[in-house]
Amino acid sequence: MSLLHVEDLAVEFTTRDGAVRPLTGIGFSLEQGEILGLVGETGSGKSVTAQAVMGLLPFLDGRVSKGKIRFMDQELTTLPETDYQKLRGNRISLISQNPMTSLDPVYRVGDQIVEGLRCHTGLSKPEARQRAVAVMSELGIPNAEKVFIQYPHQLSGGLKQRIVIAMGLCADARLLIADEPTTALDVTVQAQIIDLFARTVEKKNLGMIMITHDLGVIAHLCHRVAVMYAGTLVETGDVATLFAKPVHPYTRALLGCIPVMGMDEESLDAIPGNVPSVRTFPPGCRYHPRCPAVQEICRTRWPDTIDTPYGTRVACHQFTPQFTQQFSPDWRTTP
Predict the structure, then answer these.
(1) pLDDT in tens, 49-84
(2) Residues 232 and 316 sit within 8 Å (Cβ to Cβ)
(3) To the nearest 10°, the Cα dihedral for 219, 220, 223, 226?
(4) Cβ atoms of residues 8 and 233 within 8 Å
(5) How many CB atoms lie under 10 A from the CB of residue 136?
(6) Residues ≥6 apart with Cβ < 8 Å to 83
(7) How are beta strands 35-39 and 224-229 bridged, if at all?
(8) What is the CA radius of gyration of the chain?
């Protein structure tokens, strides 16, 4: 049994100008002890996928219009809000992108951890404090007792992010969803946080979804990766295989934007155009206006998702023996 199973997920938001549908046909599974990366440009639907799993769509005038989300064999799409509250922050935790917007500047950071911990566990204040300090120490926060009584403005960006992670781990969560948690951090601190996630998932046997646009983070942290574009999944597979043998033109384009040591500056590619607005998704394959291998069928027909010989899955009309020979796996050295 998978820890999390998402099947044919579609999401709809109500706006003053009518309904918009930012997600269509999203499906993936996550096992305990596994880290899944969701990667794609801004506007691909990564954060909306997280909001759907967290049950936050009703607070944003949205809803799951189709599909299933099963967590620990419990269907979440039909779960009443009162029951969802028992899961949210307790068994499923969200680690946000910016700790400055997650931490209240007028409360000590330790009190903020304790408040969430007591809300979900019923521990007494001394017991909650003891667990909070213990988790902070496990996360590599030096002088945890001292940091516990400090305010957010007294901490560095790396320490603030560790506090947010501690808030997500204190209540014994089984699923962590990290939404761009390293974007605002410098390279050194980013590496420390990535290592911290890897050790925490392994030690506690958690499942984790890492949402990022940084393929370097995916390469160093994740076991599997799902590439999203314009509210759809275009390619999924284990990280090593997908990075070495990408099939979908969008995946290849993303990897082509990564600089490689010793390469000529003319060799660094850029993807022309932009991700379409949710109100202007094109018919057929949504990547076709930017795709260098576009054919007429791509403009009108939605591609099926099929298995590749490499063990990955891809949604592309071009995936044929002739296509894979044309775009050989040795297309470029990747991380």
Answers:
(1) 999 999 999 999 999 999 999 999 899 999 999 999
(2) no
(3) -40
(4) no
(5) 26
(6) none
(7) parallel
(8) 21
Which secondary structure element, helix H or strand E, spans residue 269, and what is its range? none
Measuring CA to CA, which residue among 37, 38, 27 is closest to residue 2?
27
Amino acid 131 reads R
Match 């298995």 to its residue by tokens.
307
At 41 the three-state DSSP class reads coil
Look-up: residue for tokens 């410098």? 186
Beta carbons of 87 and 171 less than 8 angstroms apart? no
The angle at the Cα of 69, spanning 68 to 70, to the nearest 5 degrees, equals 115
277 phi/psi in degrees, rounded to 5 = -65, 150
pLDDT tens per residue across span 196-211 = 889 889 988 999 999 9
pTM: 0.89
DSSP code string of 263-294: --GGG-----S-PPPGGGPPSSSTTGGG-TT-
Quote the strand ranges of the chain, DSSP E: 4-15, 18-30, 35-39, 62-71, 74-75, 92-95, 175-179, 207-212, 224-229, 232-238, 305-307, 313-315
Please, what sign has the CA dihedral across residues 241, 307, 65, 175? negative
Say if CB 109 and CB 150 are below 8 A apart: yes
Closest listed residue to residue 113, CA positions, set 97, 143, 98, 93: 93
28 phi and psi angles, rounded to 5 deg: -165, 165
CA pair distance 244, 167, nearest whole angstrom: 36
Report residue 170 as tokens.
């204190």
